[in-house]
Design a protein that fits this description.
Elements lengths: L3 E10 L7 E11 L4 E5 L6 H8 L7 E6 L9 H11 E4 L11 H6 L9 H14 L15 H13 L5 E5 L7 H16 L3 E5 L13 E6 L2 E2 L4
Helix pairs in contact: 4-5
The protein binds adenosine-5'-triphosphate (ATP) and magnesium ion.
Length: 227
């Protein structure tokens, strides 16, 4: 059984309207547990849409998404939220942070419903903040951060609950060379621990890496070198 199964998925935004857009066309893809897949392709080709479907943030117009044997594309909103909390770490292209909350508060949002002890929460936050070089800004409101600092906060939030699947959407777009390299090395480590990882990116730092299993190219909503 694959960890992620995308079965003939088509995604049409605004169907029947003048601005109708087919973002994905009959895409099929299987990703095994522990695989690291790099998703590349031009702007507008459907990379973020595909990640959103895997995370059950969007529903396909046709086709099905199955994760760890569960038909996540048919989950109710509540069930999808629960699934994301336990299974998915999502680094959003646009960060999706809460600007008026501090770095640490943002990072802790995925853990709050778990009813964890205060000490434990701070420990968990401290660990990921140190990992992604954002601990010095722990108490700062996100709206006062630079782009790269916001990106590191978004990365830390995605990983704080130690999810089995990491979906990273342009995770290094705002990072400098040294911070990008840190992130790549972090991926190498968590891949070795058995995590399943999909990175959507234009950043050549991810191309040709020895620990990446596959580079998949999307163009116009279609996977070209389907494997
Ligand atoms: N919520 C939405 N409503 C309408 N159209 C959308 C929506 N989300 C994406 N699209 C359209 O679907 C297509 C694919 O978008 P998507 O964001 O998946 O591309 P991408 O490959 O991630 O691009 P980029 O590299 O610029 O991030 C684009 O034409 C986009 O305009
Ligand atoms: Mg995108």
């Amino acid at each position: 059984m694959s960890m992620i199964g995308i079965k003939k998925v088509t995604k049409v935004f605004n169907p029947g309207r003048p601005n109708e857009t087919t973002a994905l066309k009959e895409v099929s893809l299987r990703i095994e547990e522990g695989e690291l897949v790099v998703l590349k392709g031009p702007s507008g080709s459907g990379k973020s849409t595909l990640l959103g479907l895997i995370a059950a943030l969007q529903k396909p117009s046709y086709g099905e998404v199955v994760v760890a044997g569960e038909p996540v594309s048919r989950f109710s909103e509540d069930f999808a939220a629960l699934y994301r909390r336990h299974t998915i770490g999502f680094i959003f292209q646009k960060f999706n942070l809460i600007p008026t909350l501090s770095v640490e508060e943002n990072i802790l949002t995925p853990l709050l419903p778990e009813g964890m002890e205060e000490n434990k929460l701070h420990e968990r936050a401290a660990r990921v903040m140190a990992e992604f070089s954002i601990a010095h800004k722990a108490k700062e409101r996100v709206k006062n951060l630079s782009g790269g600092e916001q990106q590191r906060t978004a990365i830390a939030r995605a990983l704080v609950n130690d999810p089995p699947i990491l979906l990273a959407d342009e995770p290094t777009a705002n990072l400098d060379a040294a911070l990008s390299k840190n992130f790549v090395e972090y991926l190498r480590r968590i891949k070795a621990e058995g995590k399943t990882i999909v990175v959507a990116t234009h950043d050549p730092i991810f191309f040709g890496l020895d620990f990446v299993d596959r580079e998949i190219e999307i163009r116009n909503g279609t996977i070209r070198n389907e494997q």
